[in-house]
């Protein structure tokens, strides 16, 4: 096969991988604007608007790490295709859901299959590309993840408002079918790929991590007192990982990832950033539809500047700014993000403009973030690292919807969720500084 044909096949395969990534990440936010309409149509409760998102993102986050391990064991291409097929079937079930219970159950299944798809992407890209082409391929992941996360609310609102074929919000899930079929058509050019060493599967560790994540989210949305159990669960999980690693068995994730403080700081940064970006948009949607009693289209147009700003700054960061400034570009990005949120509090009538400024800042964060975080990962850590990075992104979005959504529902004002977001931005500055700090030598080189 000539080099030109091989190159074309590789980029077609990459298109399929990125479309699948966009499809799975899109479903984490595509119901944000549509959620109040879905809640009304299926006679749900006030908190069901939050659970429509959390029922997907929570199992998605939990399944990502075991999904990465299963890809290492059974083959990344095989798990990728299985995940896409299962995701399409679950999407069809969401489209036809007659009750809120059926919808939430189908969303859980969607999230589980999405957790099989996403961790395979980075490994398959690394197996398909090398040299400068690998860098170009990996550089597309950050913008795709960032843009789909914020494009989801706008797209979901527009689809719901369009009432395609009289389906209203149901068309939001139906859009996954053509995207999934396109993915399957493209990835036939991929070769099978699996880790050189087949790691063990830490089932108790996976179950424990899922229980801990769930215990953090439930009291935030529904109220309760399980926070103490969550903290205890984290401690037990850490002890479990250390003891399993010391015994020579494979733990739930690669402990070597945590020998350098930069990677755990990257995980914390991801939680904080996506809690802010996802939670702020969700709070604004609740305010426009429930507080101001305006239409689903109005809420889509209100959050559109955030998506547009992120798209513009992501393009500038990837093509121009990052090469000149390096990963330090994240700091002015956080400053712009915080300035936009503060502007929304100070001058509520200029909320769309303020969201546009915040979106500009968001793009300056996402592009250098993923490139920098992945630069610390060694080949045998790929599956575990990809799963963890994507898991904490989904967990951050879930917590953002839960915390900021509850802050709005509890006060009926955007002031509380926006002030909470500013506090999270302050914490984000600290975690990014740790992430970019000088790497320790010995034991964890790339």
TrEMBL record:
It is found in: Cell membrane. One of its GO terms (cellular component) is plasma membrane. Coiled coil: none annotated. The chain crosses the membrane at residues 12-37, 49-67, 79-98, 104-125, 137-159, 171-189, 201-218, 224-241, 262-285, 297-317, 329-347, 353-374, 386-409, 415-436. This is MFS family permease. PROSITE patterns: MFS (PS50850). PANTHER family: ACTINORHODIN TRANSPORTER-RELATED, MAJOR FACILITATOR SUPERFAMILY MULTIDRUG TRANSPORTER MFSC. It holds the Pfam family MFS_1. Residues 13-440 form the Major facilitator superfamily (MFS) profile domain. It comes from the Bacteria. CDD domains: MFS_MMR_MDR_like (cd17321). InterPro entries: MFS, MFS_dom, MFS_trans_sf. It is a multi-pass membrane protein.
């Amino acid at each position: 096969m000539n080099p030109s044909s091989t190159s074309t096949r590789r980029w077609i395969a990459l298109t399929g991988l990125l479309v699948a990534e966009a499809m799975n990440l899109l479903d984490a936010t595509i119901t944000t604007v549509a959620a109040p309409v879905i809640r009304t149509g299926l006679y749900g409760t006030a908190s069901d608007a939050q659970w429509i998102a959390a029922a997907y993102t929570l199992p998605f986050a939990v399944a990502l790490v075991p999904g990465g391990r299963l890809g290492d064991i059974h083959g990344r291409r095989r798990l990728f295709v299985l995940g896409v097929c299962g995701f399409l079937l679950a999407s069809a079930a969401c489209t036809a859901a007659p009750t809120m219970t059926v919808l939430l159950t189908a969303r859980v299944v969607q999230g589980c299959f999405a957790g099989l798809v996403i961790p395979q992407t980075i490994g398959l890209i690394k197996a398909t590309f090398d040299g400068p082409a690998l860098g170009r391929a990996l550089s597309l992941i950050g913008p795709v993840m960032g843009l789909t996360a914020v494009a989801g609310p706008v797209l979901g609102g527009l689809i719901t408002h369009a009432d395609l074929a009289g389906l209203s919000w149901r068309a939001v899930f139906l859009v996954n079918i053509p995207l999934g079929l396109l993915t399957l058509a493209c990835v036939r050019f991929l070769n099978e790929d699996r880790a050189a060493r087949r790691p063990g599967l830490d089932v108790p560790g996976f179950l424990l991590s899922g229980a801990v994540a769930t215990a953090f989210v439930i009291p935030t949305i529904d109220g309760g007192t399980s926070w103490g159990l969550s903290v205890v669960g984290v401690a037990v999980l850490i002890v479990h990982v250390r003891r399993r690693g010391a015994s020579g068995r494979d733990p739930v994730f690669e402990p070597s990832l945590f020998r350098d403080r930069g990677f755990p700081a990257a995980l914390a940064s991801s939680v904080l950033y996506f809690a802010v970006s996802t939670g702020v948009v969700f709070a604004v949607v609740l305010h426009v539809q429930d507080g101001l009693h305006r239409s689903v289209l109005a809420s889509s147009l209100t959050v559109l500047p955030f998506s547009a700003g992120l798209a513009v700054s992501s393009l500038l960061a990837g093509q121009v700014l990052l090469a000149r400034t390096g990963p330090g570009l994240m700091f002015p990005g956080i400053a712009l993000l915080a300035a936009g949120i503060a502007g929304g509090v100070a001058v509520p009538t200029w909320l769309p403009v303020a969201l546009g400024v915040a979106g500009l800042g968001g793009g300056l964060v996402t592009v250098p973030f993923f490139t920098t975080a992945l630069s610390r990962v060694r080949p045998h850590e790929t599956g575990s690292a990809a799963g963890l990075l994507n898991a904490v992104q989904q967990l951050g979005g879930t917590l953002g919807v839960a915390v900021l959504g509850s802050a709005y529902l509890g006060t009926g004002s955007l002031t509380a969720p926006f002030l909470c977001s500013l506090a999270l931005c302050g914490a984000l500055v600290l975690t990014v500084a740790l992430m970019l700090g000088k790497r320790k030598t010995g034991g964890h080189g790339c």
